[in-house]
Amino acid sequence: MSSTSVVPDFSALRVAVVGDLVADHYLFGEPVRLSREAPVLVLRHRREELGAGGAANAARNLRALGARVTMLGVVGRDKNGRELLEMLERDGIDVAPAVTIAGWTTPTKTRVLGAEPGRTPQQVLRIDREPATDVPEDARHELAGRLRELAAGLDAVLLSDYGYGLLGEELAGVAMALRARGTTVVLDPRKSFAVFRGIHAMSPNVGELALASRRSVEELAGPGEVLEAAHELCERSSLDHVLVTLGNRGMLLVSRRGEGWRVPAAGHEAVDVSGAGDTAAAAFTLALASGAPAPQAMRLANAAAGVVVMEMGAVPCALDKLRSALPLSPEPVSAAGVRA
Asked: Does residue 270 register a pLDDT over 70?
């Protein structure tokens, strides 16, 4: 078997996830009729579930791939926050450094899904419950201190930004110090591009790259345009690599030297893309921390994302499924460099 078809052993790696914890709340119902009150579908309630989204999903993916994981994030003193931490703890993730804030709302995405018996549920509505303010400054300082205390035992840090104000200058300073001492540091960004410099890599999707590069998504329609924008981000933020997830167009990787690689999407006829970016960032981070070359890390990330998009909801990619999927996934191909 080719070495490029082998998944590294991640079991010795200790990884901290720092980011926005999100509760994924699912309401399942069976359509029964149109309402007489309004032109809307009436669903008969069947069940509901709570899942892990945002940084919590990233942490579950790291754990499912074999790493030892510590979670640093913020939840409210509410039912969803408590159950979210309990779920992570049951998965074997250390949640002791997480911070609970009274009066703050745990970000929650409620998805209403409907289906007749025996059919695949379809999302008909999403309701987001969000905190009224960003993560308080004292909580950011507290988590930065806790990350600093963990630093000596870490092989990697995955920063997962969902836009709730956690990933600011306080944690950026610690992350950059960790990078300087050899810890692999990867940012999966939403809008925290400016404060994080000198880390290993970022893994934006095309919309986030458009925001970072002050372009429209339409201006990033082709691989050449994506390559150029990603290289600008690499240079501006002093990164080794930028991995851009492109949905059904696969992924593109660029280095600060201007080298580029592309890989087609691994999954076909995706069932649900929720959380695929978290999975990709987790697999990419572990592969880099294990010493894999960046193009091979991209291939692992692509294969892992291809696994989870075939399932409903944000689910982690199990190690055995990644091992089965990798030999069938496409190899990266070199793209034209952005400079001679």
From this structure: no
Tokens of 117: 């018996």
Residues 6+ apart with CB under 8 A from 149: none
Considering only residues 176 and 5, tell me which one the structure prediction assigns the higher pLDDT: 176
33: nearest Cα among 123, 110, 111, 116 = 116
* Residue 267: closest CA among 256, 257, 275: 275
pTM: 0.93
Would you say 166 and 19 are in contact if contact means Cβ atoms under 8 Å apart?
Answer: yes
Q: How far is CA 143 from CA 74, 85, 120, 168, 227, in A?
A: 9, 16, 40, 11, 34
Q: What is the pLDDT of residues 289-310, one digit of tens each?
A: 999 999 999 999 999 999 988 7
pLDDT digits (tens, 9 = 90+) for 46-69: 999 999 999 999 999 999 999 999
29: its two tokens: 């119902």
Q: Which of 78, 91, 240, 278 is catalytic?
A: 278
- The answer to whether residue 24 is catalytic is no
Helix 79-90, helix 55-64: angle, nearest 10:
10
Average pLDDT, the chain: 92
Opening angle at CA 260, ends 15 and 328, nearest 5:
65
Separation of alpha carbons 276 and 26, rounded Å:
17
Give me the mean pLDDT over the 65-88 stretch.
97
Max distance between CA atoms of the chain, in angstroms, equals 66
pLDDT of residue 334: 85
Which pLDDT score is estimated for 340? 33
Buried b (16+ CB within 10 A) or exposed e, 298-320: bbbbbbbbbbbbbbebbbbbbbe
Half-sphere exposure for 184 (CA within 13 Å, toward CB): 23
Q: Nearest 5°: phi and psi at 213?
A: -100, 5
At 211 the pLDDT is 92
Question: DSSP H helical segments within 74-125, as ranges?
Answer: 79-90
Q: Which domains does the chain have, with CATH numbers?
A: 3-22+58-108+135-335 (3.40.1190.20)
